[in-house]
Amino acid sequence: MKPFDYFSPKTLNEACSLLRNSGEGARILAGGTDVLVELRKPSAHLPKSIIDISRIAALKGITESGDSIIIGALTTHDEVHRSELIAKYAPLLRSAVSMIGSPQIRNRGTIGGNIMNAAACADTVPPLMTLNARLKLNSSLGEREIALTDFFVKPYVTIAHPDEILSEIHFHKLSLALRSSFVKLGRRNALSIARLSVAVVLKVGGKGIIEEARIVPGAAFPIWQRVREAEVVLVGQKLSRDIFVEAGKKVSEIMISYTGRRWSTEYKEPVIAVLVRRALEQCIDKEKKA
Ligand SMILES: Cc1cc2nc3c(=O)[nH]c(=O)nc-3n(C[C@H](O)[C@H](O)[C@H](O)COP(=O)(O)OP(=O)(O)OC[C@H]3O[C@@H](n4cnc5c(N)ncnc54)[C@H](O)[C@@H]3O)c2cc1C
C-alpha cells in the first residue's frame, strides 16, 4: 500500500477543517470495515490522506429529544442493538443491526459508515427509510439537513459533497401503535451480506383494518425507495394472508418495472414477494404477542 497522511481529529470542527484543506484526495475513516477492505484491493484508488474520525466523542451515542431519536453517526451497530431507546421506538432498526456481519463487524462498523458507503445491501437503510429518517451533514461552511429518501443517487453514490461529514441521523419515535419488522435473506446464515431484505411499518386500527403501511425493500431497486404502489394495496383492507400475498406480488412487479428482467430476476421475483409477505406477517405476530 502506498503511504498516506493520517489525521485523527478530536472534534467535528477540526475534522471539517482537515477535510477542506486536504481537498478531494482525502478519505474519512470511521470503523474502517468498508474502507480498509476497499483499500486493500489491488485496484484501489488510494487516498492522499486518511481522516480518522473515530475519536470524535460528540458523534457517538443515542439520545432522545422530545418526539425524536438522534443517533450519532459514529454509533456502532452493537451500540444501536443494545440501546433501550431503539428497542422501544425503532425495533425494526434493532432487528436490522443484529443481522449485520459478525460480532466483530458490529463492534467496529458504524451506522454512519453504513449509510455513507451506500452499498445496495446496507442493512440500516431500509428501516431508517421507513422511519422517515433525516441526516445532518457538516462541513467547514456550516451544516445542512436532508431526508434519507433524497440522499442516494445510485449504489455507492450519494449527494454528500466530498468535504461533508455525516454527523447524525434522526427520526420521529415510532408510535407504540405502529408495528414494524425487518427480514433479510442472505447467502448463508452467518456473516451474510443481504441478498434481499424488507423493512415494514404497519398501523392496524379497530376491526383489523390497515390504516397505514410503509414498505422499503433492500437490494431490490436501483436505489432504496418506499413502494407506494404496494402500500396502497394494503391500506383500507382487513388483515389477511391474501392481502399480504397481493402486496408482495405488487412489490415484485414494481421492482421489475424498475430493473427490467436480468439474470437475477428469476430468483428475486418470487423471493421478494415472499419476504414482503413474511415481514407483514411478522408485524402481526408481534401485535398478537403484545
Ligand atoms: C465481513 C463483513 C461483513 C459485513 N456484513 C455486513 C452486513 O451484513 N450488512 C451491512 O449492511 N454491511 C455489512 N458490512 C459492511 C460494513 O461493515 C458496514 O457498511 C459498516 O456499517 C460500515 O461502517 P464503518 O464505520 O466501518 O465505515 P468505514 O469503512 O469507516 O467507512 C465507510 C464509508 O463511509 C465513509 N464515512 C464513514 N463515516 C462517515 C461519516 N460520518 N461522514 C462521512 N463519510 C463517512 C467513509 O469515507 C467510507 O467511504 C460488512 C463488512 C464486512 C467486512
Q: What would your notes on this structure say?
A:
The chain has 290 residues and is of the alpha+beta class. It has 3 domains: 48 residues, 2-Layer Sandwich (Uridine Diphospho-n-acetylenolpyruvylglucosamine Reductase, domain 2), CATH 3.30.43; 116 residues, Uridine Diphospho-n-acetylenolpyruvylglucosamine Reductase, domain 3 (2-Layer Sandwich), CATH 3.30.465.10; 112 residues, CO dehydrogenase flavoprotein, C-terminal domain (Enolase-like, domain 1, 2-Layer Sandwich), CATH 3.30.390. The strands form 4 sheets. Strands 4-5-10-6-7 form a 5-stranded antiparallel β-sheet. α2 links the parallel β2 and β3. α10 packs antiparallel against α11. The model has no long low-confidence stretch (mean pLDDT 93). The site of flavin-adenine dinucleotide (FAD) has 30 residues, from β2, α2, α6, α7 and β10. Flavin-adenine dinucleotide binds next to β2, α2, α6, α7 and β10.
Largest sheet: 5 strands, antiparallel
Fold-level CATH name of the largest domain:
Uridine Diphospho-n-acetylenolpyruvylglucosamine Reductase, domain 3
Mean pLDDT metric: 93
Instruction: Categorize the overall geometry.
Output: globular
Read across the widest sheet, the strand sequence of neighbours is 4-5-10-6-7
| Residues in helices, as a percent range | 25-40%
Classify the secondary structure makeup into a structural class: alpha+beta
Which CATH architecture of the largest domain is right?
2-Layer Sandwich
Total separate domains = 3
The CA-CA distance between the termini, in Å, is 54 Å
Query: Which kinds of small molecule does this entry bind, naming each only once?
Result: flavin-adenine dinucleotide
Number of DSSP helices?
11
Strand segment tally: 13
